Amino acid sequence: MASLHPLIDSGLIQGDADFPGGTLYCKCASNPVEVTLASNVAQNHACGCSKCWKPAGALFSIVAVIPKDNVSVTANESKLAIVDPKATIQRHACTECGTHLFGRIEVDHAFKGLDFVHVELSDEEGWQEPQFAAFVSSIIEQGFDPAEIGEVRERLHDIGLETYDCLSPALMDLLATHAAKKSGALK
Fold it and tell me: Which listed residue (26, 28, 49, 97) is catalytic?
């Protein structure tokens, strides 16, 4: 079977709750884009959606959120461009190597104020380990054999990740609460 993701194929590595943050780098051999994160991340997870950046051969990305005020581009910002200007998550990728460094939401959304990042792009250890797997069935939309999806879910469970075909219940509750407040159903 294909790699789930190199970061989790051999199991989860426990993060450090007191980890202070670190630096992400794109995959360019010279003059890489550098993004500094001033804290640890939250809601780190394996994501099967078709929009997230994944390493070659991986079925899932590993993506987490961090307050946008804790994210700063510290080198080669001119190499960044937004992948899809119409998308809710404005994914900023290196124009040379294609690596997604961070995603930011600029529209009214429950997750506005949080940036999406891939901590595997850091050399530092201690980042929060993945907590769950989201959008698992979405790998089928990308060509994965539906007859093998049960094996993927089993592997994710064996690693210790609960699987969802959307986000985790806590994150779905945040989205629903935001929508209810926006519509006036909740005050």
Answer: 49
- Residues 8-40 have pLDDT tens digits of 999 999 999 999 999 999 999 999 999 999 999
* The amino acid at 135: F
- 145-174: pLDDT as tens digits: 999 999 999 999 999 999 999 888 888 888
CA 3 to chain centre: 17
CA distance 181 to 78: 38
Annotation marks residue 94 as catalytic: no
Selection from 54, 35, 57 nearest residue 123 by Cα: 35
Burial class from Cβ neighbours inside 10 Å (0-12, 13-18, 19+) for residue 55 reads middle
At residue 67, does pLDDT exceed 80?
yes
- Residue where the block lists tokens 């529209």: 107
pLDDT greater than 80 at residue 1: no
- Catalytic residue from among 26, 28, 47, 94: 47
pLDDT in tens, 33-50: 999 999 999 999 999 999
Residue-by-residue DSSP string for 11-74? ------TT---EEEE-S-SSS--EEEESS--EEEEEE--SSS---TTBS-EEEEEEEGGGEEEE
Instruction: Look up 52 and say whether it is catalytic.
Output: yes
In angstroms, how far is CA 60 from the centroid of its own chain? 9
